[in-house]
Amino acid sequence: MTYFQKQYQGKVTKFNLVIWIKIRFMESQLKLRKLTEAALDYQRKMTHPIIFWFAMLAKLPSAVFWRLKIKTLDTEKCEVTIPYFWRSQNPFKSIYFAALAGAAELSTGALCQLALAGNGQFSMLVVDFRAEYSKKANTKTTFSCHQGSELFDLIGGMQIGETAQLTMISEGKNSSDETVAKFYVTWSFKRKN
Q1: pLDDT of residue 18
Q2: How far apart are alpha carbons 137 and 180 in whole angstroms?
Q3: What is the CATH number of domain 37-191?
Q4: Are 68 and 53 spatial neighbours (Cβ–Cβ below 8 Å)?
Q5: 109 CB contacts (<8 Å, ≥6 apart)?
Q6: How far apart are CA 36 and CA 145, in angstroms?
């Protein structure tokens, strides 16, 4: 029984309903996943345009070449955008399939790195990759992965020496909110000493 139910058993008024909604909202906010200091630092760096640009230049130069940007990165989702312009296009006037795959992989990989940050030593590796293309990508495309909760639960429950896999889905939508492609990226994780 919640605090509200104890205080207002059976007495439902408009005022009580408003109070109940506020209390439920506060309870849901308390249940939100707390990020470690390392994860907060990673989140700040990956969403800061200049720091992200230098990090990608050092570790993943193709992301700089294609102008990938992390639009959103939190415990629930990651969104990555890729523009349609001369560096990302193929001869058929659409975004090159490898550029789309890079944006999709980044949307899942950044979420993985966020979940791992500050939780000990892990190794991670892509072990399977599948793609479904459904529409020509000839506008800015946003790839979204909404499996943060599932990923954080998996990482949080792993013991030292244990391995686990998770297939993460990244869906790419154009500026008209139509699905362009769907990528299935299977990540393998191993918790180290």
Answers
A1: 65
A2: 6
A3: 3.10.129.10
A4: no
A5: 185, 187
A6: 21
Instruction: Calculate Rg over the CA atoms of the chain.
Output: 20
User: Interior CA angle at 22 toward 21 and 26, to 5°?
Assistant: 115
Q: Which of 104, 108, 103, 94 is nearest to 62 (CA)?
A: 103
φ and ψ of 177, to 5 deg: 65, 30
- Residue keyed to tokens 């792993």: 158
Per-domain boundaries in the chain:
1-31, 37-191
Residue pLDDT, tens place only, 51-104:
999 999 999 999 999 999 999 999 999 999 999 999 899 999 999 999 999 999
pLDDT band at 29 (very low <50, low <70, confident <90, very high): very low
Q: What was the pLDDT predicted at 37?
A: 92
Residue 7, CA distances (Å) to 11, 13, 75, 168, 182 in order: 9, 13, 33, 43, 49
